[in-house]
């Protein structure tokens, strides 16, 4: 499988639709995904946005998005790979590229958050060197959110 990757630091209209499509496919099996407007608004208002898209030909098959959380902390916000393309190391490569970007930009910690229902994400993060450092519960949500961190070398 021949894949290419492209990185962005702004949310452009031409990447919004494919990013939204992959996001919906990845998360709709578990929960209600972001609507397009919320995704776009969040991406536009954060500082230090970084998006990596994985392509097979012209088709976006995976993505990883994150942004500056604080001076030394980068927040890995969203990501996923289309179901038919899983198991080929795409998520691992998206993560590697995101972490390299964060390291190059001077960040020393990557933080991500997830729910227990996203078992594959938890496993991928633990294999990549993340540690579970805490939990939190959002207002109106009964399921705790796991907080994971990785120190960048």
How would you characterize this protein structure?
- With 153 residues, the chain is an alpha+beta fold.
- 33% of the residues lie in helices and 33% in strands.
- The chain contains four helices and seven strands; from the N terminus they run βααβββαβαββ.
- A seven-stranded mixed beta sheet has the order 1-2-3-4-5-7-6, sandwiched between helices.
- A hairpin with a 4-residue loop joins strand 3 (59-68) and strand 4 (73-81).
- The longest helix has 16 residues, at 13-28.
- The radius of gyration is 15 Å and the shape is globular.
- The termini are far apart.
- The mean pLDDT is 91.
Task: Please give the structural blueprint.
Layout: E1 4-8, H1 13-28, H2 36-45, E2 50-56, E3 59-68, E4 73-81, H3 90-104, E5 109-115, H4 119-127, E6 131-136, E7 145-151
Parallel strand pairs: 4-5
Antiparallel strand pairs: 1-2, 2-3, 3-4, 5-7, 6-7
- What is the makeup of the main sheet? 7 strands, mixed
C-alpha Rg (nearest Å): 15 Å
Percent helix, as a range, is 25-40%
What is the helix tally? 4
Query: What spatial order of strands do you see in the largest sheet?
Result: 1-2-3-4-5-7-6
Number of distinct beta strands? 7
The first-to-last residue Cα distance is 30 Å
């Amino acid at each position: 499988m021949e894949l290419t990757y492209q990185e962005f630091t702004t949310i452009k209209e031409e990447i919004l639709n494919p990013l939204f499509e992959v996001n919906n496919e990845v998360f709709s099996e578990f929960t209600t995904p972001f609507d397009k407007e919320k995704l776009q608004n969040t991406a536009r208002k954060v500082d230090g946005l970084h998006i990596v898209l994985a392509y097979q030909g012209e088709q976006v098959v995976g993505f990883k998005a994150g942004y500056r959380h604080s001076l030394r902390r980068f927040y890995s916000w969203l990501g996923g790979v289309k179901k038919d393309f899983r198991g080929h190391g795409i998520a691992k490569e998206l993560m590697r590229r995101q972490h390299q970007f964060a390291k190059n930009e001077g960040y020393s910690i990557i933080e991500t958050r997830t729910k227990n229902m996203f078992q594959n994400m938890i496993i991928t993060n633990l294999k990549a060197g993340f540690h579970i450092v805490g939990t939190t519960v959002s207002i109106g949500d009964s399921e705790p959110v796991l907080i994971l961190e990785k120190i960048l070398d």
